[in-house]
Amino acid sequence: MSKYVFGIDLGTTYSCIAYVNEKGDSQVIKNSEGDNLTPSVVEFEEDNKIIVGEDAKEDTVLNEDNTVQFVKSLMGKTDFAIEHNNEARTPEEISSYILKKLAQDASEALDTEVKDVVITCPAYFGTAQRTATKNAGKIAGLNVLEVINEPTAAALFYGCTRDSENKTIMVYDLGGGTFDVTVMRVNADKIEVICSDGDHDLGGKRWDDALMDYLFDKVREQEGYDGEFDEYMQQNFRLKVEEVKKKLSFREKVNGTFEIDGKRIKLEVTRKEFDEITKILLNETLNKTNEVVRIAKSKGYDEIDEVLLVGGSTRMLQVKDTICEKFGKEKVKIFEPDEAVAKGAAIYAVDVYLNNKKIVETEASDIIKENKLNPDDYKENLSVETEMIGVGGVFREIVTATTKSFGVKAVKDGEPICLNMIKKNELMEKGFIEEKRIFKTMSDNQEIVNIEIYESDYMDDVIDVDDDFYIGNAILELPRNLSKDSSIEVILKLNKEGILEVTGIDKTSGKKVNVKLKTKDAMTEKKLEEIKEKFQGMLVV
Ligand code: AMP
What we know:
Layout: E1 6-10, E2 14-20, E3 26-28, E4 38-39, E5 42-44, E6 50-52, H1 54-59, E7 67-68, E8 82-84, E9 87-89, H2 91-110, E10 116-121, H3 127-139, E11 143-149, H4 150-157, E12 167-174, E13 179-186, E14 190-199, H5 204-223, H6 231-247, E15 253-260, E16 263-270, H7 271-298, E17 306-310, H8 317-327, E18 332-334, H9 340-370, H10 379-382, E19 397-399, E20 405-412, E21 415-422, E22 432-440, E23 448-456, E24 462-463, E25 470-477, E26 487-495, E27 500-506, E28 512-516, H11 525-535
Parallel strand pairs: 1-10, 10-11, 12-17, 14-19, 17-18
Antiparallel strand pairs: 1-2, 2-3, 2-4, 5-6, 5-7, 8-9, 12-13, 13-14, 15-16, 20-21, 20-23, 21-24, 22-26, 23-25, 26-27, 27-28
Helix pairs in contact: 2-3, 4-9, 5-6, 5-7
The structure holds adenosine monophosphate.
């Protein structure tokens, strides 16, 4: 039995685990190397040993073919992350090693079991990506209480919910691989996501790429080098370039030592140069930010009261300065930006855990009353273990907005179209959103209806059918002799974890089909169990 519950920020480049300590403070747990952040890098060694974190990151140069980085960007999109020992490994499995390393190290550090966790994901993650995240937790042997949005976790950490007054806040989250911008309405009892947008290919790595290209040019000019930059050199540069970039957050200029054809050379970069070559990337984040502010305005939220900077890349001064200039210095908050999400998730984990427990207890107490049992015999089931966690769970309503649009394929005037039934950025007041619509059968004696679902970022009522957006289907079998134009009701229900339930009802016979959408890429329960079994007990270093 664990004394705590945990929050995990499963990041593209770095991951982090936190818990709420006895004093009620959210605290990051250091890994076995003594670091707060663990690189999200997994390496397979020849003897089947799996290495996660800093050592794996350093080995990317030497053991590139057996190393996986940026696996978060593959989650829910493909079944393949890497081939090892002639076996294709899924992104869920790779992510599970990262989770396992975090859990193992935290377990050792606190001398307790790590079981109940909340894992975070970007607000714009769709159904398949959220399911994959949850599955990664399951494979790692964890009990995933919930997968929550990173900006929601950040708002909890920054204490935005302490005041009773309503505030409109914006979370600008620039991490290692992704950019995420979200506008939320918060007060002491409620966090409401108004709208969000993001780019899953815009993060610190792109700043590294820009600096790397710039330095390659410098090497050609300065050193007269005219050879190729092979993979080894590129990897070596990548590690060094990140160090230079980080130092530029504190210094006006930095001298980095690099290796070219076995020869060590020194290259100087000034912050001015760095800012200049990456301005285009910063502008991309500003365009997304402006768009989200515009949508928030169109929903009646004219003024942003606070801007929270989250993600390691907001340590770059160009980000802080630009955002302060745009929104006003007094509105911008930046504090431990690379730990904020994990710490907020830990705060949320306590809330969820205690609230779940209260629900179970209320039910248990009702049963005891109804059956006139002696409550003393059921003490264990009834006491919320208050010593388990330093703080009491606060009930906060978290209202999220849809982060994708979901449409159904239909035929209009002989042409296939996609009708968006659930639209992106709609509030999910009750923790879910449900939309119903009546369609017609196409012909007499039609045997089935194939309800095909498409997930996209488009917010129009009708969009083109695009195979890239297809996520799955539900097949409704029809009774015999049904005539053309018979009514078929389609109900889409999306919950706050991004799981979509599709129901089709033949209104004539009442026949029904109901599926929790098995997305194209989400793993089946059977496959999940197989993987879980295979890797049970496996140690990760
Ligand atoms: P996160 O995913 O939030 O942990 O952010 C990781 C990204 O933040 C990586 O691209 C890091 O290189 C970047 N990062 C961390 N610290 C700094 C720093 N001091 N200056 C610039 N970038 C940083």
